[in-house]
């Protein structure tokens, strides 16, 4: 027996015998199981795929940059880093692209883009520290929507949780022409500026 306001209440009063409610409950359970069973597993973006249409931010939350619009009809080099101001990104990854920017653009690259799961103010400050103006577009992906759409994210608790894997890509007319993802997600090897084959 269950107590309710000091009265003895039979346990069966908490269960309904109404067949309509029982039917609805069964339907909800079955639908929930079906949805769970048919969830689509994402696969990382591949060479030949079109970029997802996602807004990134440059300098401030008011300045949206749609990545498909930015890459439409152009050759663009994009590289992503686990975090602004982190040692590997600041000492090696970003500086390599800054040093090679003029050569890349002379060879036909219209834009060079750096993306990180940071806010746009942080990306702007990081870019200013490395003199990226006129060379590299520092685009923020604050909620990680772009990186999630590419399925190239990773969990890095010391950096706050969800971040981007370290990778580079050559994009031609919004399609991925070359993709280099670091094997461990954070290393500094295949995604460096001097490893990129952008002259195709």
UniProtKB/TrEMBL annotation:
Keywords: Antioxidant, Oxidoreductase, Peroxidase, Redox-active center. The active site is at 89 (cysteine sulfenic acid (-soh) intermediate). GO terms for biological process: cell redox homeostasis; cellular response to oxidative stress; hydrogen peroxide catabolic process. Its EC number is 1.11.1.24. InterPro entries: PRX5-like, Redoxin, Thioredoxin_domain. Residues 45-172 form the Thioredoxin domain. CDD domains: PRX5_like. It catalyses: a hydroperoxide + [thioredoxin]-dithiol = an alcohol + [thioredoxin]-disulfide + H2O. GO terms for cellular component: mitochondrion; peroxisome. GO terms for molecular function: thioredoxin peroxidase activity. Thiol-specific peroxidase that catalyzes the reduction of hydrogen peroxide and organic hydroperoxides to water and alcohols, respectively. Plays a role in cell protection against oxidative stress by detoxifying peroxides and as sensor of hydrogen peroxide-mediated signaling events. Belongs to the peroxiredoxin family. Prx5 subfamily. This is Peroxiredoxin-5. It comes from Parnassius apollo (Apollo butterfly).
């Amino acid at each position: 027996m269950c107590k309710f306001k000091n009265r003895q209440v039979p346990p069966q009063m908490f269960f309904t015998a109404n067949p309509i409610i029982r039917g609805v409950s069964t339907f909800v359970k079955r639908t929930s199981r079906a949805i769970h069973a048919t969830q689509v597993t994402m696969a990382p973006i591949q060479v030949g795929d079109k970029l997802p249409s996602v807004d990134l931010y440059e300098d401030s939350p008011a300045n949206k940059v749609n990545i498909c619009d930015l890459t439409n009809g152009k050759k663009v080099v994009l590289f992503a880093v686990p975090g602004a101001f982190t040692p590997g990104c600041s000492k090696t990854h970003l500086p390599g692209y800054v040093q090679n920017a003029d050569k890349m653009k002379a060879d036909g690259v219209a834009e060079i883009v750096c993306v990180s799961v940071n806010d746009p103010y942080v990306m702007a400050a990081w870019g200013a520290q490395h003199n990226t103006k006129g060379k590299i577009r520092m685009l923020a992906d604050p909620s990680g929507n772009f990186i999630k759409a590419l399925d190239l994210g990773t969990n890095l608790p010391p950096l706050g949780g969800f971040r981007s894997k370290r990778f580079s890509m050559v994009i031609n007319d919004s399609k991925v022409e070359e993709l280099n993802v670091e094997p461990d997600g954070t290393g500094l090897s295949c995604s460096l500026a001097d490893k990129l084959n952008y002259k195709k």
